[in-house]
Specification:
alpha+beta, ten-stranded mixed beta sheet
Length: about 240
């Protein structure tokens, strides 16, 4: 009996798959079945020659922080202390599928809205006394954190923008970023509105090479009845991670 070539090919593939499956099952029977590989020891936090933490790449450890959906960090909208008008606007935005945050239209997002998939990079430039936060998605924007001891511009010199005006300082190994001067065009997170009274204080630290912790305090008396905070952490085992 002549067996068609196509039938022989399918039979061969099925047999090969069966052998792979049997081999895999047999392998799991040795030692601890299906045991995950042990976690690698945490690599030390990169530092500058003067001992200061480097939140980004070094000459021998280059990479960026990859963000995967679900990083989150802020309270649920129901738990945020919004003023009545702000909650009504937030609810309206979230109930209309045709409305999108400005970030979707490639407008820059400041504060917690800046850290979106697929990720961001932190570049510390000591000779410029500045730290740059580079945004990979959407508008490919960047934030400048002035580290030279300057204060925020006052009066008409403070020009409202999507990203605001940021000054920074170190508290031990934590970078503290103080930002004011926002316009009212961005959505803080999700559908939450802001006003020109928005004041953000962000804290970023790097416990080891592949971990980054972020905390933000949001104070906007024009839209909220009290300040509130949000936080997230990227680790070597989280969905969001350091990509070499």
């Amino acid at each position: 009996m002549n067996i068609p070539y196509r039938v022989l090919l399918i039979a061969t593939v099925i047999a090969s798959l069966c052998l792979v499956t049997i081999s895999s099952v047999a392998g799991q029977g040795r030692g601890q079945a299906g045991a995950a590989a042990p976690a690698q020891p945490a690599e030390p936090t990169p530092r500058w020659p003067d001992g200061r933490v480097n939140l980004g790449s070094t000459s021998d450890q280059k990479g960026y922080w990859e963000v995967r959906p679900g990083l989150g960090g802020l309270p649920r909208a129901a738990d945020v202390p919004m003023q009545p008008w702000a909650r009504a606007l937030s609810d309206y935005r979230s109930s209309h599928a045709e409305l999108y945050p400005p970030l979707v239209g490639c407008k820059a997002a400041g504060g917690p809205g800046f850290f979106n998939a697929p990720g961001f990079e932190i570049v510390d430039v000591p000779e410029l006394k500045s730290i740059f936060l580079l945004n990979i998605p959407g508008p490919h924007s960047w934030r400048v954190i002035y580290m030279d001891g300057r204060q925020h511009p006052a009066g008409d010199a403070l020009r409202p923008t999507y990203l605001g005006h940021s000054i920074g300082r170190w508290e031990g190994d934590t970078l503290v970023i103080d930002t004011v001067g926002f316009n009212e065009k961005q959505w803080l997170a999700g559908s939450m509105p802001t006003t020109d009274k928005l004041h953000l204080v962000e804290r970023i630290s790097r416990p080891n090479l592949r971990s980054l912790s972020y905390e933000v305090t949001i104070d906007d008396s024009g839209a909220y009845t009290a300040p509130f905070t949000g936080r997230w952490t990227i680790t070597q085992t989280s969905a969001s991670t350091w990509i070499a």
